[in-house]
Amino acid sequence: MAANGILFLRVSLGIIFVWFGVLKFFPGLSSAADLATRTISILSFGLVGPELSMPILALWETLIGIGLIFRLFLRETLLLLFLQMMGTISPIFFFPFETFSSIPFVPTLEGQYIIKNIVIISAGIVIGATVRGGKLVAEPPRKNQTHPEDGRVLKNNKV
């Protein structure tokens, strides 16, 4: 799990972003389109209408997915992901009567769709921890144990 967990997390998250992003290129296929266009309109102070917001959002999400799947420009990809998540969470505040049937404890289907993004944000943080070479290890090294990759002797869990 430690050897492949981050790879699986990154690729599976990428697949979700590509899938949901591509759906937004085709009018009527994304169940989130209406809420997304209204949210973008509010966030852009009415400057970006639905005819422009959906293709931009579709491209944005698809690029995030491609970046995650192929590990391309990972820092920039994760920045796009976190910015997109801020926009995705905002309908809870802009449209609380559409995202909750009983505020704040009973989310509607749209609210559940938004709340699950907590997991996506957490996944992004975990993936981000690997950008500069961080990785999961199956078990911390014990005293005087050799390093599993290069055989160096570890003293007190240090090289």
TrEMBL record:
Keyword tags: Membrane, Transmembrane, Transmembrane helix
Membrane topology term: Multi-pass membrane protein
Compositionally biased spans, kind Basic and acidic residues: 140-153
GO cellular component terms given for this protein: membrane
UniProt subcellular location: Membrane
Keyword Membrane: yes
Transmembrane segments: 7-26, 52-70, 77-94, 114-134
Record-linked InterPro entries: DoxX
Domain of life: Bacteria
Region (Disordered) residue spans: 138-159
Listed name of the protein: DoxX family membrane protein
Native source species: Geofilum rubicundum JCM 15548
Native organism taxonomy: Bacteria, Pseudomonadati, Bacteroidota, Bacteroidia, Marinilabiliales
